[in-house]
Amino acid sequence: MASNDHWRIEVAASQSPWTHPHWVEWIKWVVASYAQWTGQSLSDAGPEEFPRVLFHAPFVLVSHGKEADPVLCYGNQTALKLWEMSLSQFLETPSRYTAEPMHRDERAQLLERTTRYGFVDDYQGIRISASGTRFRIHQATVWNVIDAEGTYQGQAAMFHEWTPIGS
Question: Is the pLDDT of residue 64 over 60?
């Protein structure tokens, strides 16, 4: 994959981001890593359909890269709606900004635990959208994304349930 961020602009400008070669490769790693860590599949679709099906899935699927301050590099439509961001906004966001400042230490502990064990499947926490809407995520699975050679590339998270907080 490209070492620069030019692909983010291309993906954000696309009407069908799931067709961009970067995303196709990334989602293969996300799906294979999830299966390796959990023994489960993210979808019943065939591998060639994963990018499209997961982009339109009714659950949240997000991921970030391995930068020192990781930036979001994937978010499906459900995630974009929940975080109230356009795809271009999402792909420019450091993943730590998905949590309020007071909850970032908790988030950092989750990511460290995921790094150590490969995945966790019991995470609950509070997140915040771009407009300031707070919500609690339930039973999130977070896992390390590795490439075909087994090299760490980042982390992904998936969850089906969330609850708005406040009004």
Answer: yes
